[in-house]
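Thread: Modeling a multi-component assembly for a lab meeting

Hi all, long-time lurker, first post. My supervisor asked me to bring a structural picture of a complex we are working on to next week's group meeting, and I have zero experience with this. I have the sequence lines for every component (226 residues in total). Could someone generate the structure of the whole assembly? Inputs are pasted exactly as I received them:
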Amino acid sequence: ETGVTQTPRHLVMGMTNKKSLKCEQHLGHNAMYWYKQSAKKPLELMFVYNFKEQTENNSVPSRFSPECPNSSHLFLHLHTLQPEDSALYLCASSNAWLVNNEQFFGPGTRLTVL
Amino acid sequence: GQQLNQSPQSMFIQEGEDVSMNCTSSSIFNTWLWYKQDPGEGPVLLIALYKAGELTSNGRLTAQFGITRKDSFLNISASIPSDVGIYFCAGRQMDTGNQFYFGTGTSLTVIP
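Re: Modeling a multi-component assembly
Sure thing. I ran the full set together rather than chain by chain. Output:
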């Protein structure tokens, strides 16, 4: 596997379900991110982890719960979601040591909440 | 948060034509990135810019970091059908660490 991978690629869940999204980066990076992408809107940064520590939580509802067990893996735990949470969820990683700190994205998980 | 204005929102062009799109912000940025996103995929980094006035090419793509540090341009020359997709700009301010702000995207359609 190379780059940033995400599973599952598609997920349909009911509002009472609990599910998790998984992201893995194979780039040796030390920072990881969750973004939400909705139609006609800019990418919304949700969470940032630097060296496994959460450094940003952009007013994300508590029904989204991130977990970063190590610098290569990032999870987004979902429970009691709302239909408006349906979107493409993108994971990204970067090397926080570099001034440039360019972010590389995974393919995303297309989430539909019924 | 910071808003980036990206234009145009969409473009329909003939194969072989050149394309130009731009991104502006109300704040000064120290980094501009341009990404392309194909349907069902994540954004792929095309070009990164780090200095005001910098002009960088990647094949048929050329991007510039505006001298005011509040804008950036992406040009695609001699477009081909595989250029179809959504192009995003992203910018970072000096004091916001890892955080990049993203434009709303330019949807490009190339008509063979």
